[in-house]
Amino acid sequence: MPGLTRRSVLFAVPAAAAAIASPALISRATASTPHQSPIDIHRHGAVVSPHLPALHVHYPHSLDLEIRYESKDQSQPDGCEHRTAEETVLAEIPEGAAWVTLAGVRYNLANFHFHTRSEHRLDGHQFPLEQHWVHLGPNGEKLVIGQFIKTGGHGGTLQDQALATVPEECAEDVHLHAANLAAALPSDLSTFRYDGSLTTSPYSEPVSWLVLNHVREIKASSLAHFQSRFPDGDSRPLQALNGRTVKYRPQH
């Protein structure tokens, strides 16, 4: 696809394309691709599947990152002041620096970003925040780990560090030194798994979703700083399950 960067393939269409895409076109695209994300995950409705392959995480203990505001309308006259649900704060990961394996297949971590409030729900509950860890397989397959986040922590996590330093739209990137990605995911890697889509345009399918059952806790001030950038939120509404089966893979 000419003009698409590695980031735009994984995360969204380029800003210029997003600016000219009509709501009618997006609506038709969604209607023709019924396995969309996010969804409401119900614990009692998930099929317990211990036979599914285990998730193996290979994230570094120290990695320098650049945290940036992912703007979709920077070229518009009021783009630096106007917030849209397509925008977020994102850290792009150097290729090959971090990865997961599933059934022997390696998926390189491409970026992580945040949505407020959470896009997925758990038994109808919407969390204050959700983090997405976006991975790319050897043939372009997309695998995203979703992580619910709530307040109650004491700080010091990667999430706290990233959220407390998010830049303004159109501002310079923020450098995060020696970020500990290895500690950013829990030791309990039990996940709800289903086939879905990206949650930003073009909402492309398929995406293999692994949503962690464990909820990360952060400081209230970290959440407040991120939400100050997105007072109206940056999450997509729930999508219909449309006959899909959600499976639960325990991995304590």
Automatic annotation (TrEMBL):
CDD domains, per database record: alpha_CA_prokaryotic_like (cd03124)
GO biological process assignments: one-carbon metabolic process
Top-rank lineage group of the source organism: Bacteria
Keywords: Signal
Domain Alpha-carbonic anhydrase: 1-250
Signal peptide (from-to): 1-26
Example of a GO MF term: zinc ion binding
Protein name (record): Carbonic anhydrase family protein
Organism taxonomic ancestry: Bacteria, Bacillati, Actinomycetota, Actinomycetes, Propionibacteriales
